[in-house]
């Protein structure tokens, strides 16, 4: 199978066969982020004979495109369902890309928060929202046997990104899911720090990147809301202060959104939690992608 034929801006970095499909890693020159970006892809065996739908996975703080591929155990189910997995990095990287001046884990490299930064020096590179919504899908769908039937999922910061991107682009995603998402970032320490840095002090600009706010605003347009599944472990050390799950539950109850929000007893914030429930999430997406 050929990948990105004729596209000199995309380099195949790694290729492994798994469950009859292919686990791939690419590097490309991103116009949106103004740097080289790595992303990982799992193509199920069905991609040998035609285009397949895709679940886009957004990872959390400190992660790269490789964490989900190596820890979640998602390939077996994706191969069975005939669904591709598209896994971007969590921020721009490389020479000239600024990082948190104190080297903190929750801002800068590995912590792009899936927003379009407007503040210097972040605005030149930190345009992760546009990268996920536009550039990456256009690249993938033009160079791989992947269709424009999309779902989106993620963990923690990536769960925030999946909810925000899915809600703001409901015509592009057939379903949304999240593990341990940051659902009300305008009211938690992680979100306040990231949004102040990337978006500036005007908190009105922050609201467009808050899933709880977006769900509330779509109350009268529930037909525009894709099916949503959220799982939260009740032994998560970042719950409730950073994740603020109850805020999303309250909004979901007040509105006609119909999101399915579940607490899972004894589970923490780790990839062990994701590995335990990823099959349910992928089958949820597959049922909506058909």
Automatic annotation (TrEMBL):
Statement: the UniProt record of this protein carries the keyword RNA-binding: no
Pfam families associated with the record: Esterase
EC identifiers of the protein: 3.1.2.12
Molecular functions (GO terms): carboxylic ester hydrolase activity; S-formylglutathione hydrolase activity
Residues the record marks as active site: 156, 236, 269
Keyword check for Hydrolase: yes
Keywords annotated in UniProt: Hydrolase, Serine esterase
GO BP term, example: formaldehyde catabolic process
Any Gene Ontology CC annotation: cytosol
Function in brief: Serine hydrolase involved in the detoxification of formaldehyde.
NCBIfam families listed in its UniProt record: fghA_ester_D
Family: Belongs to the esterase D family.
Protein name per the record: S-formylglutathione hydrolase
Organism from which the protein derives: Aliidiomarina shirensis
Lineage, broadest ranks: Bacteria, Pseudomonadati, Pseudomonadota, Gammaproteobacteria, Alteromonadales
Gene designation: fghA
């Amino acid at each position: 199978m050929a990948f990105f034929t004729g596209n000199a801006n995309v380099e195949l970095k790694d290729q492994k066969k798994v469950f009859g499909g292919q686990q791939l890693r690419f590097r490309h020159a991103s116009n949106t982020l103004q740097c080289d970006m790595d992303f990982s892809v799992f193509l199920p065996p069905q991609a040998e004979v035609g285009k397949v739908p895709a679940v886009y996975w957004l990872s959390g703080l400190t992660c790269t495109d490789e964490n989900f591929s190596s820890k979640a155990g998602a390939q077996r189910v994706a191969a069975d369902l005939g669904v591709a997995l598209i896994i971007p990095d969590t921020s721009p990287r490389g020479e000239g890309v600024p990082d948190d001046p104190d080297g903190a884990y929750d801002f800068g490299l590995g912590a792009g928060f899936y927003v379009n930064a407007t503040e210097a020096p972040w605005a030149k590179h930190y345009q992760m929202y546009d990268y996920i919504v536009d550039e990456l899908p256009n690249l993938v769908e033009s160079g791989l046997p992947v269709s424009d039937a999309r779902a989106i999922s993620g963990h923690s910061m990536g769960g925030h990104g999946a909810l925000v991107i899915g809600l703001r682009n409901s015509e592009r995603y057939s379903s949304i899911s999240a593990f341990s998402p940051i659902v009300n970032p305008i009211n938690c320490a992680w979100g306040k720090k990231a949004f102040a840095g990337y978006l500036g002090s005007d908190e009105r600009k922050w609201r467009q990147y808050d899933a709880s706010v977006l769900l509330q605003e779509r109350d009268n347009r529930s037909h525009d809301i894709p099916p949503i599944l959220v799982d939260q472990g009740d032994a998560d050390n970042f719950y409730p202060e950073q994740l603020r799950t109850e805020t999303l539950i309250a909004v979901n109850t007040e509105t006609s959104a119909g999101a399915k929000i579940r607490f899972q007893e004894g589970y923490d914030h780790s990839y062990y939690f994701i590995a335990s429930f990823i099959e349910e999430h992928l089958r949820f997406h597959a049922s909506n992608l058909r």
